[in-house]
């Protein structure tokens, strides 16, 4: 019985191994450099966030403090991005967070992350196609909407009001381009992204000439004498909806940065991935952070926050400032930026499908590579059709609500993976004596004698990380659900809140005291374990801000995924077949090198 349990545990936690040579091998065409990856990252990130999200958060949630909302979101994204950058240098393979989790934590959690990344990219592409359709429709006086309502109505409570044939067509068109090749896709992305950057730079420069500092310090009396059809006015000043509104805005603005992980999915198509991926991720996040903060500053300085149009903030801001001609300039930039974001959503999807299928966790036929084009053609077609169907049937709001949980889980697991691998033995475990494993003492935990990690210290870190993640969720749940009680010093709530903070500090110190691996990478996440732990904590907070319907949809999607994994993936996993080849008599036994 115990051997069966042990074998089952090994099945779920077996990790993927890459040799020094095999980590560089790829069936895909290596043709991308640092410049290509950076422009791809900026193009996929700087789209709907600049033209749609800025106005919504400023008008409804944060007011002028949307600038700080973007800043907080940028910090959270940069923390996760640093962890992605290390893994890009460590394991430059297709699959991004899925692959990173597989090599560090284990197969089951890797499948969960990969399955959610599929949902994230499908919905991301569909929602971007819908946003592109809506923005173009607004420029032609909503002609498409009226036509589709009349000819393609959808009479269902769970679907959109009408079938958006244009959004579906755009998804299929971009899919065809991706089938042709990633280099050709990158060239189109370069043109679209530079057009978008030129428009945004023009908007920022011209907008500053029409800015008024008074719009960041509107008096409460001035606001209270106004009426607004939406009722979202606030109390004026820089924080019209309070600090809570700024933080809630940060949770929304966070999703404006999700495109940067596109860079990590192209690990097998880079000419020098260990160098290109870390540099491109960092440059993408820095550029997008600066531009998002600049755009939100200009909009809120040009127009009082309560007059900002949440659906077309930039065009209406320039119309308000007496420069209506810029509405057309902004329209061109928006169409280019949103199209680049669509390309950035559809490009990583087949790479993730390819990585999971190549490992045998989903049907292997999906991983077929076209011999001449050297692209994952089956995965590209499946991803494109799935996105097109979602774009055809669901509206933008329904799609956006469904895409958040996969992103946050992926960011959290990548941060955890960095912690796991930094405290793992690099080569043969360095054991000074059997006492280090058999009879550890408190001194070993608080002040380990080793200078390099051992099996024992790695196991200690594993348990500490598990405790820290659980405590992070508890700490964030108390903060979110009992803010007023904490402020009012409710004894019970305040006690648990302080206890959770103390435990968080203790777990962090204990992890920091353990010996780290000395392996030198081209790029390493700085200040480990503090940067990954801060990333985990911020992601836990944002995960707990998700709505109940999001968790229900997540449960349904995961149920389907577990059926595929249970009936196919477990039995066809490449690592299981490798285990069988290595140990035909004991396929479920575990070697010391597999231990955490």
CATH architecture of the largest domain: Up-down Bundle
Q: Give the H and E element order.
A: HHHHHHHHHHHHHHHHHHHHHHHHHHH
Shape: globular
How many domains make up the coordinates? 2
Rg from Cα = 25 Å
- Count of DSSP helices? 27
- Estimated share of beta-strand residues: under 5%
Measure the end-to-end span. Answer: 23 Å
Q: Which percent bin holds the helix content?
A: 55-70%
Residue windows where pLDDT falls under 50 for at least 5 positions: 428-443, 582-596
The average pLDDT score comes to: 80
Main sheet: strands, sense, barrel: none
CATH topology of the largest domain: Amino acid/polyamine transporter I
GO molecular function, one term: L-ornithine transmembrane transporter activity
Subcellular location: Membrane
Membrane topology: Multi-pass membrane protein
Main location: membrane
Characterise the protein shown here:
The protein is an all-alpha fold. It folds into two domains: 2-418, Amino acid/polyamine transporter I; 427-518. It is built from 27 helices and no strands. The chain has helices at residues 2-13, 34-45, 48-62, 66-90, 97-104, 107-139, 143-151, 165-180, 182-209, 220-224, 242-253, 262-265, 273-302, 313-320, 326-346, 348-358, 377-393, 396-402, 404-422, 435-438, 442-446, 455-481, 483-487, 491-513, 530-544, 548-572, 574-582. The two termini are 23 Å apart. Residues 428-443 and 582-596 have low confidence and may be disordered. The chain crosses the membrane at residues 34-54, 66-85, 97-115, 162-180, 186-208, 281-305, 325-345, 377-396, 403-423, 460-482, 494-512, 527-544, 551-571. This is Cationic amino acid transporter C-terminal domain-containing protein. It is a multi-pass membrane protein. InterPro entries: AA/rel_permease1, CAT_C. Residues 523-573 form the Cationic amino acid transporter C-terminal domain.
């Amino acid at each position: 019985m115990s051997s069966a349990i042990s074998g089952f545990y090994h099945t779920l936690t077996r990790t993927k191994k890459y040799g020094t040579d095999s980590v560089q091998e790829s069936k895909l065409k290596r043709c991308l450099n640092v410049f290509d990856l950076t422009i791809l990252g900026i193009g996929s990130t700087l789209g709907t966030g600049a033209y749609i999200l800025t106005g919504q958060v400023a008008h409804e949630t944060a007011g002028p403090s949307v600038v700080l909302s973007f800043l907080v979101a940028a910090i959270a994204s940069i923390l996760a991005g640093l962890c992605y950058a290390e893994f890009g240098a460590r394991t430059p393979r297709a699959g991004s967070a899925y692959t990173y989790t597989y090599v560090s934590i284990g197969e089951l959690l890797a499948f969960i992350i990969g399955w959610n990344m599929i949902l994230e990219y499908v919905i991301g592409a569909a929602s971007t196609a819908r946003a592109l359709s809506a923005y173009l429709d607004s420029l032609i006086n909503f002609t498409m909407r009226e036509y589709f309502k009349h000819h393609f109505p959808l009479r269902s409570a769970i679907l959109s009001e009408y079938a958006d044939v244009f959004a579906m067509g755009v998804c299929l068109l971009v899919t065809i381009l991706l089938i042709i090749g990633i280099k050709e896709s990158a060239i189109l992305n370069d043109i679209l992204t530079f057009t978008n950057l030129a428009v945004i730079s023009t908007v920022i420069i011209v907008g500053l000439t029409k800015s008024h500092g008074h719009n960041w310090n509107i008096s409460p009396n001035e606001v209270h004498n106004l009426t607004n059809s939406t009722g979202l006015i606030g109390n004026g000043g820089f924080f019209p909806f309070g600090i809570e509104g700024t933080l809630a805005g940060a949770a929304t603005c966070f999703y404006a940065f999700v495109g940067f992980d596109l860079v990590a999915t192209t690990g097998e198509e880079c000419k020098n991935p260990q160098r290109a991926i870390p540099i491109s991720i960092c440059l993408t996040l820095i550029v997008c952070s600066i531009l998002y903060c600049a755009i939100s500053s200009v909009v809120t300085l040009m127009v009082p926050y309560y007059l900002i149009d949440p659906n077309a903030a930039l065009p209406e801001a320039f119309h308000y400032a007496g420069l209506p001609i810029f509405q057309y300039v902004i329209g061109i930039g928006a169409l280019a930026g949103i199209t680049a974001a669509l390309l950035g959503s559809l490009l990583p999807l087949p790479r993730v499908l390819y990585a999971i299928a190549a490992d045998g966790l989903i049907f292997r036929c999906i991983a077929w590579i076209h011999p001449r084009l050297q692209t994952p053609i089956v995965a590209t077609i499946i991803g494109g059709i799935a996105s097109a169907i979602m774009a055809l049937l669901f509206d933008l709001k329904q799609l956006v609500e469904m895409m958040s949980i996969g992103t946050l889980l992926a960011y959290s697991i990548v941060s955890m993976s960095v912690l796991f691998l930094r405290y793992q033995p690099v080569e043969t475990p360095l054991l000074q004596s059997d006492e280090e494993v058999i009879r550890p003492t408190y001194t070993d935990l608080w002040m380990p004698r080793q200078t390099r990690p051992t099996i024992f210290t790695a196991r200690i870190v594993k348990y500490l990380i598990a405790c820290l993640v659980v405590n992070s969720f508890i700490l964030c749940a108390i903060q979110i659900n009992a803010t007023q009680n904490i402020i009012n010093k409710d004894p019970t709530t305040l006690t648990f809140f302080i206890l959770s903070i103390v435990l968080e500090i203790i777990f962090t110190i204990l992890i920091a005291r353990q010996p780290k691996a000395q392996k030198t990478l081209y790029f390493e996440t700085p200040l480990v374990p503090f940067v990954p732990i801060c990333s985990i904590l911020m992601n836990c907070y944002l995960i707990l801000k998700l709505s109940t319907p999001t968790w229900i949809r997540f449960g349904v999607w995961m149920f389907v995924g577990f059926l595929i994994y249970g009936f196919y993936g477990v039995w066809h996993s490449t690592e299981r077949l490798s285990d069988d080849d290595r140990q035909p008599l004991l396929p479920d036994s575990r070697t010391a090198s597999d231990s955490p």
